[in-house]
């Protein structure tokens, strides 16, 4: 009820701010498109975002926005201090790395680098955050608090740029009270946005198994230790044991790569397996790790062979703060329309913004970028991914408006 009253007051007071945000956003729309297309044309892989970082700094400098660079490699942090700057600090984050994918789009701003493409929309996120910084910088004299803009490298590669930037202290000096971030969503047509309170994206771990037996002729089974049989048994045992763990939430345990170079009558010495564990429960995650390692030891002992199991712990569960997310969802209905704001389902994919959500009340939402009439509807991580440019205007406008509204609402969730 309190949140509803606050929102009602903000809506009454913020009609003018809404109009100002939309007017400024529309006036810089062509610039935002230009920024996004430059970044898209010059993609860089995780921890190699040197030119992207320099370009971000150039845009910030052109707009007289204070910044520092060199975080976690090529990360950039910008600050806009408004009136009473210590009253509240809102953090906004965009990732900026690309993927090792060969782009197949026939567009003027197609990637100029073979095998590297912005296929996950990080070029969009960065352009939107730069556009948001420009809008808020023009309105800063009417606002209270501080906005911290985090341009983050290496979302696509462990250990994740978010975790490294946090270790370097970017949540402090000034201390961030709330965090916002968005992500492209080709499942929605342009003009739609989506929110989900609570657990939204899964923790994700990479599993690597190496089995070393004793190779030989398949016709002499007593003289060999078959690592393929060991691996097959281990996979079944692990999946069966983890399945018995009590859990009311979704999880995924799958193995997608099993390699052993023998022949129809040749038993190889070694087999290697790769898999993934995804879960929405950190306690379940730790128990599953123990089971996996224990089953590996059993197989090793049973076959008198070598079985090594390496678990590369990935990103944690992404949790959206309920009050902050509900607040942003209601405001989005006012800024866009009620029909434009949708509920999101849980996703078993992972995202390193989860590190921010584990430390600061956060809202990570989705923005529609598809336009089926223009055949812009390909999924992320594919060589044909692209967006409707209108989503840039919507993203900048909405992110700016949500930031302003949270600064006006001085209640710290």
In the CATH hierarchy, what is the class of the largest domain?
A: Alpha Beta
Cα separation of the termini: 15 Å
N to C succession of SSEs: HHHEEEHEHEEEEEHEEEHEEHEHEH
Relative helix content: 25-40%
Name of the CATH homologous superfamily of the largest domain: Zn peptidases
Summarize the structure in words.
There is one protein chain. The protein is an alpha/beta fold and 413 residues long. The protein folds into two domains: 2-199 and 317-408, Aminopeptidase; 203-313, Alpha-Beta Plaits. 38% of the residues lie in helices and 25% in strands. It contains ten helices and 16 strands. It has helices at residues 2-27, 29-41, 50-62, 122-139, 161-167, 227-243, 282-303, 322-335, 354-359, 390-408, and strands spanning 66-71, 75-81, 89-95, 146-152, 178-189, 193-195, 198-201, 203-212, 216-217, 251-259, 266-267, 270-279, 306-313, 318-320, 341-343, 362-370. The chain has an eight-stranded mixed sheet, with helices on both faces. Strand 1 and strand 2 form a beta hairpin. Helix 4 packs across helix 10 (390-408), helix 6 packs antiparallel against helix 7 (282-303) and helix 8 crosses helix 10. The longest helix is centred in the first third of the chain and has 26 residues, at 2-27.
């Amino acid at each position: 009820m309190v949140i509803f009253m606050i929102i009602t007051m903000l809506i009454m007071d913020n009609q003018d701010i809404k109009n100002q945000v939309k007017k400024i956003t529309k006036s810089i729309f062509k610039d935002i498109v230009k920024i996004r297309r430059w970044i898209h044309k010059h993609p860089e892989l995780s921890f190699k975002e040197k030119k992207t970082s320099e370009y971000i700094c150039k845009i910030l400098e052109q707009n007289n926005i204070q910044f520092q660079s060199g975080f976690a490699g090529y990360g950039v942090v910008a600050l806009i201090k408004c009136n009473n700057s210590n009253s509240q600090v809102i953090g906004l984050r965009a990732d900026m790395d690309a993927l090792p994918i060969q782009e197949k789009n026939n567009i003027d701003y197609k990637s100029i680098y073979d095998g590297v493409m912005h296929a996950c929309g990080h070029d969009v996120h960065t352009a939107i955050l730069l556009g948001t910084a420009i809008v808020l910088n023009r309105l800063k004299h009417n606002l209270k608090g501080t906005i911290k803009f985090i341009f983050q490298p290496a979302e696509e590669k462990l250990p994740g740029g978010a975790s490294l930037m946090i270790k370097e202290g970017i949540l402090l000096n000034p201390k961030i009270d709330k965090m916002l971030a968005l992500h492209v969503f080709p499942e929605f047509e342009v003009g739609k946005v989506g929110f989900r309170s609570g657990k939204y994206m899964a923790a994700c771990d990479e599993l690597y198994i190496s089995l070393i037996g004793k190779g030989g002729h398949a016709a002499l089974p007593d003289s060999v230790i078959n690592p393929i049989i060991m691996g097959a048994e281990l996979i079944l045992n692990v999946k069966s044991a983890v399945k018995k763990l009590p859990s009311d939430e979704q999880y995924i345990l799958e193995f997608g790569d099993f390699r052993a170079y023998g022949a129809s009558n040749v038993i190889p010495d070694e087999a290697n397996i790769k898999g993934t564990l995804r879960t929405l429960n950190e306690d379940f995650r730790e128990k599953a790790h123990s089971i996996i390692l224990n089953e590996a030891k059993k197989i090793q002992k049973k076959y008198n062979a070598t079985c090594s199991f390496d678990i590369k712990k990935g990103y944690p569960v992404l949790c959206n703060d309920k009050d902050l997310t509900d607040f942003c969802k209601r405001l989005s209905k006012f800024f866009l329309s009620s029909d434009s704001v949708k509920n999101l389902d849980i996703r078993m994919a992972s995202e390193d913004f989860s590190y921010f959500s584990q430390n600061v009340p956060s809202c990570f939402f989705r923005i529609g970028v598809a336009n089926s009439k223009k055949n812009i509807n390909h999924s992320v991580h594919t060589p044909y991914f692209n967006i409707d440019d209108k989503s840039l205007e919507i993203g900048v406008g909405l992110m700016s408006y949500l930031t302003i509204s949270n600064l006006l609402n001085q209640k710290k969730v």
